[in-house]
Amino acid sequence: MPQPPDPQTKQTTTPSSNSAGYKNICVMGLGYVGLPTAMLFARKGFSVCGVDIDKAVLSLIEERRVTEVYSELSEWTDALDRDFKTSKAPKPADVFLITVPTPVHPETKSCDLRAVKSATEALVPVLQPGNLVILESTVPPGTTRNVVKPILEKSGLKVGTDIHLCFCPERILPGNTIHELVHNHRVLGGNTPEASRRAKALFEQVVEGEIYITDDISAEFCKLTENTYRDVNIALANELSILADEHGVDFKAITPLINKHPRVNVLTPGIGVGGHCIAVDPWFFVEVSPWKTELIRTSREVNDRMPAYCVQKIVSDLKAIEGTGKSQEDLNICLVGLTYKPDVADTRESPAMRIVELLKERGYSVTTYDPLLEEYQGQSLYDTITGADYLGVLVNHSMVKAELALNKTKIKKLMRTPKIRVF
Ligand SMILES: NC(=O)c1ccc[n+]([C@@H]2O[C@H](COP(=O)([O-])OP(=O)(O)OC[C@H]3O[C@@H](n4cnc5c(N)ncnc54)[C@H](O)[C@@H]3O)[C@@H](O)[C@H]2O)c1
Question: How many CA atoms, within 13 angstroms, populate the side-chain half-sphere of residue 235?
């Protein structure tokens, strides 16, 4: 049953009182972005139909097992008992949100738009005059108007007059999804000003952040620029840390000193960049303008080379242990933290996984552990490091950091050779 709006939000309107009268929302793709978005709308009293082509995803929701995969959504699971249906195909609705994946092809580094195209195609038979379609998937500039719009118009309805189309990038940070989905500022890029106006009226009912209006291609450009900005700055920090290593300087230790400069904010270097956004989206700029994206491409390459650089460091640590009489085959190497960043259970494009792969390729046998991943449940850090010759902490989850801070002596005692490196 629809529930009254959440009193914690500033909006007090009911869905039927929004200027466009939207009530029924259909969300195409129920992953990291789509599922919480669908839950948000359901919690605000909208009638929601969540669509996914993956039966396992639908079962996860129907069987109320969402938190097995998305533990951070535990506060919002009441959404599923509201007016929330699931389906493998879209049904007629007022608004369609497209939140399907847009991965990069591993070799060509071009954006794979197949899911966006097929999700849009699936809308064609159910579209009705007055509908609003909002693309939230991150895409190369021009996709909303050049790819999505012509597909929608196969319905015989004209975008801009009969139906409305908008690009609305999502900016959530996994690990802080619930807060950011509601409180982040949003950029809305309508294919027409009327589409922007309608999308704004809709989002104003569910978000607390400010809403800024632009056109579709500018909004696409904003989203790619945000992630490219992060990637380029991380690449700079990573390159400087490699340079610092060469000079025997501890770059992490001096970063706070550098950042005492009033106009400098160097990021923390790391083992590379992973996840579905920063490691992927800058390629969409390179794809559309290969000759004008030298810095962006180089930054991606610098960040992609970091796992290999970390492997060099690990191998040099291991050689030192081998120097004490142990052979490569005997070494008990333990690597902890496999997700793409601390405190999330997501391994997509994870540099830590790449490090494990590269070490195995070099003939090392490696034991891995990540307290956040399903396959390691029932296992502890202590089980993993007992008898180890090397502990490499690749991703420093809060709970691992706390163990190391509190129990380093115990950990070292359990290891056969107490060599620890925290990346
Ligand atoms: N994960 C993030 O934090 C984040 C943040 C901002 C933007 N984005 C962007 O949002 C988009 C979605 O990312 P995600 O992380 O939610 O992806 P995801 O892989 O977690 O989820 C996508 C879902 O879409 C489903 N799907 C695929 N094709 C479909 C189709 N034709 N019809 C219906 N469902 C379909 C998949 O089965 C999957 O469940 C991407 O473009 C991503 O770049 C993601």
Answer: 20
